[in-house]
Amino acid sequence: MLTACWDGTNISMTFTWSGVNADAYGFGFTTADGGAGVGLPLPHTEHHGSIKSLTTDASLFPPLDSLTVVGGVSYHDVSVASGEISQPTGGWQTLPAC
Question: What is the DSSP letter of 46?
């Protein structure tokens, strides 16, 4: 599940999942001109195989003209869970406070 909040300056995103294997996660945003994002492997230092349940977050600063923010997890380069949040009518600043 993707959640987002407003920290007073930026959009903060968190993605939580359970019940599916995952070995990487990512966050991103879309604008009228395209979009960008970040994808990272999940830490497996204490795990064998893939992680079935975890909460992830990353530092990504979507511009305030972003239309959506997205997040998700993948397993062997295939998306297994994802979420998308559209910009609220009043702007990103109207998200719940972090």
Answer: T
